[in-house]
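Record type: ASSEMBLY
Status: queued
Input:
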Amino acid sequence: MAELGSGLSRRRLLGGAGAGVALGAAGFGVGRWTDDGSASAASSAAVDGLDLGRSVDFYTGAHQAGIETPQQRYCVFMTFDLTASTAQELQVLLARWSAAIAQCMAGEPVGTVAPERAGAVAADTGEALDLGPASLTVTLGLGPRVFDERFGLADRKPTLLADLPALPSDTLRPELTGGDLSLQACADDPQVAYHAIRDLARMGRGVVNTRWVVLGFGRASAGKGQSTPRNLMGFKDGTRNIKEAADLDTHVWAADDDVDWMRGGGTYQVVRKIRMDIEIWDADDVADQQRIFARRKQDGSPLTGKDEFDTPDFAATDDAGQAVIDPISHVALAAHENNNGIRIFRRGYNFTDGINDVGQLDAGLLFVAYMNDPDSFVQLQTKLGRADSLNEYIAHIGSGIFAVPPAPEKGHYLAEALFS
Amino acid sequence: MPSARIRRGLGLLAAAAVVASLAGCGSDDDSSPSSASGSDPSTGATTEAASDDGSGEVSVTMANEGGSDTCTLDRDSVEAGPITFTVTNESATGVTEVELLSDQKILGEKENLAPGLDPVTFTVTLGGGDYQIYCPGADPEMVPFTVTGEAATEPVGDTQQALQDGATQYATYVDEQVASMVQGVQTLQAAVESGDLAASQDAYAKARIFYERIESDVEGFVLDGFKPTDNHGNLDYLIDMRASNLDPEVGWHGFHAVERDLFGRQAITDSTKQLAAELTDNVTKLSELAKTLQYKPEDLANGAAGLLEEVQANKISGEEEEFSHIDLVDFAGNVEGAEQSFAYLKPGLEQIDGALTDTIAQRFDAVTTLLDTYRDASELGGYQRYTAELKKSDANELSQTVQALQDSLSRLAEKVATA
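Status: finished
Output:
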């Protein structure tokens, strides 16, 4: 593995340092430390650049954490269906979830783990106790059906929030598609991420039912300052991802959204569960794999360049006059140069569901992307779904679209403006 | 699941305190407390009308200051009388509820507190004395509070008495169910003896529900002369064991062994007759033991939660009625039994925690409304068979609806214990 994590951004880590003492560990990983001795966990993890004592601030008052936050190694992504009948139930849930997310992100339990009273059940399920914050972020999204006739919120629906249209090559399974709410919990300790989702789901019972979930075990995109990880096809993924704040402003943050509760830092989240036919891919020769991606497997460089970050030259031809980069390669079809400048911010994870019912490895990519107009994804995927050479080895089996409101200020909760 | 109680058998009989009514099934009895749902959506985002007589106003404020959550009162003393507490969570993410306590008993409370929601109020009439505001998760959690003036005019212990009254009445309900169960297995035995397979299947389905309504109350009995580890003397085992948990030394007995013959083998043999007779014998023993039971309020709370755990563990999976597929009948029995426990506690519980009471009542409604959609008078036991196809399509919704109820019910025991 090439990734050492030594380039993790520290920019956000210092903001909001409140309770703890900032320390340096092994020359990097400056962060917030808990008082309970999670420094020992951090020092062993420091070998691979992790700092499990690091925490991220929930109350940014701007963008929700878990988008431009340096991408953590693990993710649990869950969607929910609202079973509530009133907007007030949704309102209370969002307020309680916000407070609980703030607790979890600070590395604190969401309530008592071992209550003293006779007969009492625990408020917090306990499995993340003493694990540290592990850079946990939990990012909330609202799906289109929040704004149907049930809750009287129809006039607050963003124009851009609509079910994705049927797209070429879609093989979506209903049980892996849709959802009224989404929670993306990412952390550098998978148990910290799982705990957050578990306790939030528990808190939501009676108001939301669980719908689908994906457990991402390795990051498959890079943010600013991060090395580029690899997807399960063995290729570097996210080399050309959006990295700069100015590009995030242009392509990701919905500054001019038509509803007030999304302005000030909202964005749209498109999620696809993409199955990979791993055994078939592994039987393909590497030259063909490289043609399909238009990158070299070893170093991630484009077939027209030498270094990973060289800009692909889509016009280059070889001595025989053939295009060096196949026009139906994945990179060629997805490149912003070939899509009127459209760019999206990817934050994907590799997942596995074990073995399928015919004995094959069941795995793929949890594609999570953020953009200020979901039509960006629709345009890109329409093109990819029609022609991408990679389609022979993948299938989009799950899908969701969610409006991601800005983060609240301290003393407030997510999407609070929706209820005013 | 609350810890299983190991009960010693026949020695308790002398202490039988409750006379069993043999008048059949009690669940449809109009005299039973109902669990009609409240519609108060007081989940935290509304304010109730504050008292306007000016006799007492106290503000309780939670905030996050210097990295820890605090809980403060705007005054530490107030005159006796109706006192309205206005609770505001400004920024304390670790505090979600507040309780007014007197000597560890809950006099009033608010839950679902979170930063950003509107303030909520509750009004309690207090006599002179020392009280505490309890904010679990805050530092400190307990804030002392003094009421000056005359001591309470209302007798202390009303709530406790209401709960205990409910628990005492509940014993009658259990006795009725046990008596009906005895009749049910006698009818089953007679049908099996006659060799009539259809009549036996019908009798089986009818007998099951009585056990399912009260199984969490009558489990744990060990017959005299047996060790708790010896399943030869374990009445649960002898009455309700499923194929998945058989003890090879004891073999298969009880309802589900009969079920296997009647529905799996579709045949009545001498062995079936022996099993049915033995079932009557064991259920009769159980009925004698059950008469000795006395209930504390927390037994009802734990029992209700336990019944729903039975639904989640064995009915949703279709394991309970592997051959007859009448799992939804058992499911309904578990829910009815839990609802009775709750209904008997309700008058006292409302005084402790009206919001939780309403939530539980609403969630019982959600479960029973959902269950009603499976009613089918033409099927054994009055519900659709829980086939593999039905399970595949419907188990998710059934399970999540029950889980929402069980989660709220699991908080009951703590509430009634503090009454």
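Annotation: The first strand of chain A starts at residue 23 and ends at 25.
Annotation: The two ends of chain A are 49 Å apart (CA to CA).
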